[in-house]
Amino acid sequence: MTTEVGSETEVKKDSEQLGPDKAKDKPEEASETPVNQKSRETSSEEAQDSSSVPAPTSQSSPGSQKKEKASPESKGISRFLPPWLKKQKSYTLAEPKDETKKRTTGEEQVVEESEGQTSEGVAQPKKSLEEAAAENQHNVKANDKEEKHSVSSAETQPAKDGKETEVEKVAEEKEEKQEEKEKRETKEVQTVEIKTEIIPQKSPKKSKTVQCKVMLLDGTEYSCDLEKRAKGQVLFDKVCEHLNLLEKDYFGLVFYENSEQKNWLDSSKEIKRQIRSLPWIFTFNVKFYPPDPSQLTEDITRYFLCLQLRQDIASGRLPCSFVTHALLGSYTLQAELGDHDPEEHRSDYISEFQFAPNQTQEMEEKVAELHKTHRGLTPAQADSQFLENAKRLSMYGVDLHHAKDSEGVDIMLGVCANGLLIYKDRLRINRFAWPKILKISYKRSNFYIKVRPAELEQFESTIGFKLPNHRAAKRLWKVCVEHHTFFRLVSPEQPPKAKFLTLGSKFRYSGRTQAQTRQASNLIDRPAPYFERTSSKRVSRSLDGAPTGISDQSLLRGLPTTGGQAAGDKILDIEAAGQAKLKEGGEEEDGSPVKTPQLELTQDGKRHASRTEGPCTGVSDADKSSHETLDIVEEKKQAEVGIEETLVVDETNKGKMQVATDAGEACKVEHLSKKDSSSLPSDSSSSSSSSESEDEEVGEYQPHHRAIEEVIREEQEEEEDVKRKEHEEKIQHVEATAEGSKLSVPVEHTQVTTEDLVQENAVTIATEEKNLSEEIKQDLGEEKEEEQLRLNGDVSHVDIDVAPQIICCSEPPVVKTEMVTISDATQRTEISTKEVPIVQTETKTITYESPQFDGSAAGNAGVLLSAQTITSESISTTTTTHITKMVKGGVSETRIEKRIVITGDADIDHDEALAQAIKEAKEQHPDMSVTRVVVHKETELAEEDEE
Amino acid sequence: CRQALRSAAGPEVDFARAEREYQLYVGVLRGKLGLQVLELPADESLPDCVFVEDVAVVCEETALLTRPGAPSRRKEVEAMKKVLESLNLNIVEMVDENATLDGGDVLFTGREFFVGLSRRTNQRGAEILADTFKDYAVSTVPVHDALHLKSFCSMAGPNLIAIGSSEAAQKALKTMQQMSDHRYDKLTVPDDAAANCVYLNIPNKGHVLLHRAPEEYPESAKVFEKLKDHMLIPIANTELEKVDGALTCCSVLINKTSEL
User: Fold this and answer.
1) A423: nearest CA in chain B?
2) Per mean pLDDT, which range of A9-18, A476-485, A709-718, A887-896 is the poorest?
3) How far apart are CA A554 and CA A804, in angstroms?
């Protein structure tokens, strides 16, 4: 098992390139900061969630470590979690051992597939399609069950191998290190990842495979069995391997919903989260049409491009003239039939081919006539000629989307390598080259582009288009993001970081850019592969020999994931992990899950949450300097899949606390701050050409801002007021709690102005981590400073800065975390407003009263009142309520912290869910005010990183 | 065919001189450049029939017979149709009664079409052109303060747009630059009218450019004379210019050998 595990880890490491670095950084930080409390809390939370669930952490640790390595955050979390999980695993292990052992081989295979994608067709017979289907239908519920199952299986494997435990321990240790600093945040993220990871593994064990059918370009069908939890990349790689295709970055898998809407399978996300209907049927298509096909390295790549174009032409998607139809058709004949043979090629030989939507006898005659002129061309040459002519077609590589302009006129938006084209009927009425576009955004069913000001104009303009629905808008937006990244950037942008400014979907193109794929294809060193130009039939491969250790890990992972509500579990896990770190190996090995959870609970739930959130935000702001930042990003990614929303309702007897009465207001404030931030990035981007591309991306983020601005200008004003109030309130709180804190606050403000507040906050969280934070500040400092300066006008920013500082002075690093959370809060507000169409973004916003807690931290007693889990078909909501009563300086404070985890596919209206959660929180505690709203959105993108 | 030339207010057209200029124009194409020139019979009932460019757009093997924006010119299409049919071109007729298109509003760059939306050409006409030439992008360009898009621009080389200096011309150029995926070189001449020139790429003769004579537009002629790779042929067009005629208006270039 250990050996296997090791291999797995390596694989993960490779995949996780970014992750390991982060993880490394994190461990250091983690070691510095005491995570005991966190671990306790997490353990308690986990215990509450489900007794069965806790086990996963331990199991997850090995698997999670690997995965986590890919995504530092996730890894760290898993590591921390493992102790509890291990314990649970041990329980489970005893029972299912036999089964698990048997399954292990299959599982291992599965795991390998998922991780390395190497094992292709190892369809585990044990897995029943029915089960998989059921799982799909009831993703959340099924996940829980599956997780449990997987856990059991995982446990069994570990039991078999004593080595496994050792491995896990090691992993745990690593995790612990990482976790210490980031523990809370990372834990959350990790848990999420773990869950996902586990699930796939589980599926194999219980025969949760799903049969996939992929329609290939040559008209043949490729089918294989995938774990239900497999990510898109697994399938895509299988298909490409089947096709013997190396230059695969130009291609993608498409699935259709409602038989009309064409969706690209996100390779970084689980398939089942993207495709709802059970028959998994995809088509293999060209996604990015290379502007110059002659620069493709391999003929086989050109061949597939030709096949795609023939489809496009025959279907009418790629319009061309009669002459061009005939010419392209003649090259097709030459490529597929060779030289014209009067004997063999009778008059009707052409009729079998379709060259055009409306093929006429005249056209066929013309094709035949031209075919005769191509004598001597090899198939590859004929394909090249075909492409040379096809690439000149005006609609070559243009992805059209129906839309309406601002006046309601039907138009088409075409996304291509060079930018965005606007068509009315067949006419091009406008064009926006990528360099001209500052931002791309969508809100609900509206799609916006912010355009660089023209030569004589001073102001950039935002142009809005109305798409048929929200999904269409998002689809268009994603296509734009992908095309821009692929064709314009040298390397894909990092997924949006947790800068407070970033809102909405954190979706980024995660594949290689054209520049990268060209570079990579230059390294292709293989003899030109032979391929049949007519339909080729191949049998799906099955890979064996997946390391058992991997499977075990997967199982372990699955156990943690048992909490169907991934988001909630994640949060809990994170905290637990942090605590676990403090306890470290000993506890983990012992695996007293109960203890850890208790600790977590006892500890300040708020603090944990705040810490986690704070680091996340800080992380987002800072690039790599802080592991946390990386984690944040991942979390955001995950957020797309499931949104973790944490509502903290602080009720203060003091009037000060009341300031933020409505979470919505806070949200608004946050929105405002976001807007400001968004504006800043855009400006910076505009200044430099290189930044332009980034700016565009930023613009994508910014789009939310835009929408907010446009729609919610009024609200913004209100929000600003609210924010100011909140800030005041916050300040007041600080003062009330600790005088020293008050003093510190002003000083901090000054500091903050110079540096990025957000970053500072993150830094403040862990004193030890300060170095990291400083680095981050340096990195981000310039941008942030600018932003801050701009934002300075906004009270919210100032407040945030102050709060962190206060925390530092009066209290331990925990306070700092709170500061961070505050910065996040601004972002949240945006989310809550629902203005951010892209729910996917992982933004964490927290409004903090941290000073109070800090002061009372020693005496604070946390009581976990209840943990509720409500699962609906599409949404799983987990609510954890912490009520803390504190007495400071004669002032009694009751804090109710609710953690609501909303798990669901990207389709869920997160904004609505959040608003509902806030509303419910208000209703339940009418006499209290909502002071903090922290939203964690986790997207599956992180998962990709992990793998 | 230049008897009752419709004209805006302005000096009278010297028909004799117009005739001489026209003959020079044809003579250059046929004699000096060796092109086969098919002259449409003059029809005195159609005063504008000399401006054949407006009634047909020919690209490769396809010819689009337009529906001129001026109702008085609609019948000009019939003569053009007969000639084009004799060339075995794939002919498309614009039958939509809501569509109008003057060839003078159609700028074909070799890579794409720009269609000026003017008093003579409307959106529907442009759409039909786009449907006719599906291989190419067809972008619309609003035209103000000029009769046609090509009243202030034309192609002066394979990748070269000659453009006038007026505000309307420069604005149209910006629009075209924004709409195109391709970057064109531009040749800016002081006079809008001089920006309308006739470029031909003739085997064995290379780049040939018919441009307005230095006597007419000396400053613009100097600009053309800087083109070193072109065979430059100055041609006066003083009389037809009085009725909005430009160099390109008097011919439809067809890359095909007539079998007649």
Assistant:
1) B139
2) A709-718
3) 39
Name the nearest CA neighbour of A117 among A560, A638, A550.
A550
Q: What is the CA radius of gyration of chain B?
A: 17
Spatial contact of A28 and A35, defined as CB atoms under 8 Å apart: no
Q: Match 């946050």 to its residue by tokens.
A: A670
Backbone angles phi, psi at A715, to 5 degrees: -55, -40
Beta bridge partners of A936: A644
Q: Is A425 on the interface with B (CB under 8 A)?
A: yes
The SS3 assignment for A7 reads helix
Q: Tally Cβ neighbours within 10 Å of residue A763.
A: 34
Residue A531 structure tokens: 């391929």
Tell me which CATH homologous superfamily contains domain B33-240: L-arginine/glycine Amidinotransferase; Chain A (3.75.10.10)
Instruction: Report d(CA A903, CA A641) in Å as an integer.
Output: 7
Active site residue B249: yes
Question: What token pair was written down for A544?
Answer: 């064996």
CB contact under 8 A, A428 and B139: yes
Cα separation, A222 vs A214, in Å, equals: 5
pLDDT value of position A108: 43
Chain B residues with CB under 8 Å of A324 CB are 134-135
Q: How many CB atoms lie within 10 A of CB A318?
A: 23
- pLDDT score of A133: 40
Query: Two tokens at A819?
Result: 């500061």
Q: What is the mean pLDDT of residues A779-804?
A: 36
Cβ distance B134 to A319 less than 8 Å, yes or no, reads yes
CA distance A498 to A934: 13
List Cβ neighbours of A750 (8 Å cut-off, separation of 6 or more): none
Residue A511 Cα distances to A203, A267, B33, angstroms: 26, 9, 55
- Count CB neighbours of B203 within 10 A: 6
In this prediction the ipTM stands at 0.91
Residue type, B232: L
Q: Are the Cβ atoms of A322 and B133 closer than 8 angstroms?
A: no
Where do we find the tokens 């794939």? B90
Joined together, the tokens standing for residue A565 give 């509500």
Cβ contacts of A575 within 8 Å, gap of 6 or more: A38, A39, A41, A42, A45, A183, A184, A187, A188, A600, A603, A605, A608, A609, A612
Considering the candidates B49, B59, B148, B250, report the single residue annotated as catalytic: B148
Helix/strand number for chain B, H first, E second: 6, 12
Q: Which residues contact A690 (CB under 8 A, 6 or more apart)?
A: none
* Residue A496 near residue A636 (C-beta atoms within 8 A): yes
User: Of the ranges A12-26, A56-70, A595-609, which one carries the lowest mean pLDDT score?
Assistant: A595-609
- Angstrom distance (rounded) from CA B247 to CA B53: 10
| B148 catalytic residue (yes or no) | yes
Per domain, the residue ranges of chain B are: 33-240
Q: Is the per-residue pLDDT at A840 higher than 60?
A: no
CA-nearest residue of chain A to B142?
Answer: A429
pLDDT at A505 (0 to 100): 65
In what order do the strands lie in the sheet containing A891-904?
A861-871, A875-888, A891-904, A640-652, A929-938
Answer whether B137 sits within 8 Å of A425, measured CB to CB: no
Contact of A880 with A899, CB cutoff 8 Å: yes
In the numeric block, which tokens belong to residue A925? 């505690």
